[in-house]
Specification:
InterPro entries: PIK3R5/6 (IPR019522). Residues 344-353 have a biased composition (Basic and acidic residues). This is Phosphoinositide 3-kinase regulatory subunit 6. This protein is of the alpha+beta class and 720 residues long. Helices cover 47% and strands 17% of the residues. The protein has helices at 15-32, 38-54, 59-76, 82-95, 101-114, 121-137, 141-151, 175-185, 192-208, 214-224, 228-245, 250-267, 297-335, 340-353, 370-382, 407-427, 430-433, 463-471, 473-480, 482-485, 489-495, 505-516, 556-567, 680-689; strands spanning 161-168, 288-292, 397-405, 434-442, 519-524, 526-532, 540-544, 547-551, 581-589, 597-605, 607-611, 624-629, 637-648, 654-658, 661-676, 709-714. The strands form three sheets. The protein has a six-stranded antiparallel beta barrel. Strands 2-1-3-4 form a four-stranded parallel β-sheet, with helices on both faces. The chain is elongated.
């Protein structure tokens, strides 16, 4: 039921400001209006941010409107509006050139009151509250840190670096679609010197406000050329020291920025006291590495390359500083004309001692054994024994993994993620350095079915995306709406000339998702042991995240006819001939009391559908729904469990397909055993302490989570 919105009463002080705020208010109401479709809400959100990006002076008006709406939410208990307003407000503040101190304080006080709301609202509010406080004390800090991390700008004070990897499933992305999406995502970004000028411009404008003349400063920075690097390092140092000092150093920070501003204008022969209007400083999109995910090892290789490249870069930077010190010493020695030969020999010895001084960053493109890669990563992180070890800055790297596809690509991700965790359980090298964040943009090559029963159908390959959209309406509006838009990109680009500018909508939405979607939804991974007829040794170990389908070849036609009858709402009263194969199953029944009750039974079925995604988001993600298809209504059984073993009793076999992906299909299967996938780290801890079969926990294992989840970032997340 739609709630009536309060009419806008514009202030009478400033007519221009009133008109802008009225326009912003109407835009916000259009986004919050429940009657608007999800796709339109996402487009309206993007349009609103583009308005502020084009006209930075409008950001203050938009912040005022958003704060008023949040205060209204607090009074009237409109919780469904909290998430969109919080994310929109935070994103505007990051992009804003300058916000008055009194408005910052009003935002902060509003956030303090929102902390009384339940999860997940209070968690998101607290995270943004800390960011707002830092931006209030050190204006421009959020923008500067964001650009430095996303663009890997070299500096000595803020070591955070991020890398965005987009993996597209070739089963969904044809050649033309892949080229179209790649053209939109991998845009020709600005050069490092341009980024440095942009950071300087934004930080000085945010810190000085009207005391800074944006257009004159822009021209002065361009005239400086390569000399801009010196001022960039000074501003980074000033901002980081201001963050460390807190409120006590606020006045000192502003004075320092004023000196830097005057020095820049003086060096460029401009008036050092110039003040006036502010210039536009749009937040650049992060550098995106786009891959057509044909090889599952590619994810691991890219993470290793990322770690190696950064580690080698840090080492080279350290050696470069040492060389600069040696050169300065050499110059001082040359000036008194003594010890020249000894000094040259010392320099040669130092270069031999530091073999990485002129080395290239290693990169894995060919085949290399995982243990060899791990050894090389460990060597590069720790450094050779004869050289100076790197400072142990753990967790400074963030790899943002974006999956594009349907349930199949998340199934492949689940397998790759489990493999990475298994390697890390033994060595724990990448985990120390890289913070892994996973995102999902649903894209399918099938028609999208908007049906409440679509999640239970084998043909619907967007069950995970549908679930995320139900638990997070803001994800539904901004991300799920891309599922129907992205497949049209290939046709759109073919109708337009190549000379036209690339479409920034997709990369803008992805950037928004990467920066604001930090609340994970944890999907339980399930381990399945597959026993194949005629195969000796241990069963095949696999994992799946959403779906397992067991089909009996002899009854494939019977099962297809049964599906057609269900889709046409026809009921078969009589059964003719065999109803299916006879299978036995043992499973643990899920009960409200959480007590495990082992059940055993035999059923006749022509197919089994096992789903880890419930149609109802309130039922959670910690159990499986197992449905046995049969032409006999009495044999159509559905159970809920976490552990199940299915074995065929006749001299037959069946086929198993994981996560609706024909690339992960197993034939001639005799039995399957399914259980929640244990975290390899937990398994290693328990196996190292006790013998197999002993159930006690000791050491670190009692503090670890037993089950391995797959975290997918959204805007809201799920409260556990």
């Amino acid at each position: 039921m739609n709630k009536k919105t309060t009419p806008w009463n514009p202030p009478v002080a400033d007519g221009m400001s009133s008109a802008v705020e009225a326009s912003m208010y109407n835009s916000i109401q259009a986004i919050l209006r429940q009657a608007a479709s999800s796709c339109n809400k996402g487009m309206l959100r993007w349009t609103l941010h583009k308005k502020v990006e084009t006209h930075p002076s409008n950001s203050v008006s938009l912040v005022r409107v958003l704060v008023k709406e949040l205060e209204k939410v607090e009074r009237l208990d409109y919780k469904m509006h909290v998430i969109p307003l919080l994310h929109t407000l935070n994103y505007v503040i990051i992009q804003s050139s300058h916000i008055p101190c009194n408005l910052f304080q009003r935002v902060y006080e509003c956030f303090k009151r929102l902390l009384t709301l339940p999860e997940p609202y209070c968690t998101i509010t607290l995270r943004y509250m800390r960011s707002i406080k830092m931006e209030q004390i050190t204006p421009g800090a959020l923008y500067q840190r964001r650009v430095i991390a996303e663009q890997s700008l070299r500096n000595k004070r803020f070591p955070q670096q991020e890398r965005v990897f987009v993996f597209a499933d070739p089963a969904v992305f044809s050649g033309s679609l892949w080229q179209a999406v790649r053209a939109d995502l991998v845009l020709a970004g600005p050069q490092s010197d341009t980024l440095a000028r942009r950071v300087l411009l934004h930080t000085l404008q945010a810190g000085l406000g009207k005391a800074c003349h944006g257009p004159i400063l822009t021209q002065a920075l361009e005239d400086l050329g390569e000399d801009v690097e010196k001022y960039f390092q000074e501003v980074v140092l000033a901002v980081e020291q201001s963050i460390e000092n807190g409120e006590a150093g606020r006045d000192q920070h502003k004075t320092r920025l004023q000196h830097i501003y005057s020095d820049i204008l003086t060096s460029a022969n401009q008036d050092p006291k110039a003040c006036g209007s502010l210039s536009n400083t749009p937040l650049p999109s992060p550098e995106i590495h786009f891959h057509l995910w044909t090889n599952e090892e590619e994810l691991w290789n890219e993470l290793v390359n990322f770690t190696l490249n950064v580690s080698t870069s840090e080492r080279n930077s350290m050696y470069q500083e040492e060389e600069e010190e040696d050169v300065s010493k050499r110059v001082s020695l040359l000036s008194v004309d003594s010890g020249i030969e000894k000094d040259l020999s010392d320099m040669e010895e130092r270069e031999q001692r530091n073999p990485f001084t002129r080395s290239r960053s290693p990169c894995f493109r060919g085949r290399m054994k995982p243990e060899d890669k791990m050894a090389l990563v460990q060597e590069n992180i720790k450094g050779p024994t004869c050289s100076t070890p790197l400072p142990k800055e753990e967790g400074n790297l963030t790899a943002r993994i974006v999956m594009m596809g349907d349930d199949r690509v998340l199934g492949r991700l689940a397998k790759a993620y489990h493999s990475i965790r298994k390697r890390e359980a033994k060595h724990l090298i990448l985990t120390k350095r890289v913070n892994l964040q996973i995102y999902y943009i649903p894209v399918t090559d099938e028609p999208i079915v908007n049906s409440p029963e679509s999640t239970s159908q084998v043909g619907d390959r967007l069950s995970l995306a549908s679930f995320l959209g139900r638990v997070d309406p803001w994800y539904e509006s901004n991300i799920n709406s891309l599922g129907s838009m992205i497949p049209k990109l290939a046709g759109t680009q073919s109708r337009h000339s190549r000379s036209s500018e690339p479409n920034h909508f997709l990369v803008d939405v992805l950037s928004y998702y990467l920066r604001c979607g930090l609340q994970p939804v944890h999907f339980t991974l399930y381990s399945v042991k597959i026993s194949v007829s005629g195969q000796t040794g241990s069963p095949v170990n696999e994992v799946f995240v959403s779906h397992l389908d067991a089909e009996f070849p002899e009854f494939k036609t019977l099962r297809e006819n049964l599906k057609q009858e269900r889709s046409s709402l026809r009921r078969t009263r009589k059964t003719h001939g065999t109803c299916g194969a006879v299978v036995s199953m043992n499973y643990t029944k899920v009960s409200l009391s959480k007590q495990e009750v082992v059940q055993g039974m035999s059923v006749m079925t022509c197919g089994v559908v096992i789903s880890a995604i419930s149609p109802n988001e309130t039922e959670g993600l910690d159990s499986l729904t197992v449905h046995f298809d049969s032409t006999n209504p009495r044999c159509c059984t559905e159970i809920r469990t976490q552990n199940i073993k299915i074995r065929i009793l006749e001299d037959k076999t069946f086929t198993v397909c994981l996560d609706k992906d024909c690339r992960r299909k197993y034939t001639h299967v005799q039995s399957i055993e399914i259980s929640p996938c244990l975290d390899p780290g937990y398994c290693l801890q328990t196996s190292s302490k006790f013998s197999v079969g002993e159930e006690r926990e000791a050491g670190l294992s009692k503090y670890m989570c037993k089950i391995l989840p797959l975290p997918i970032n959204t805007f809201t997340g799920i409260n556990h």
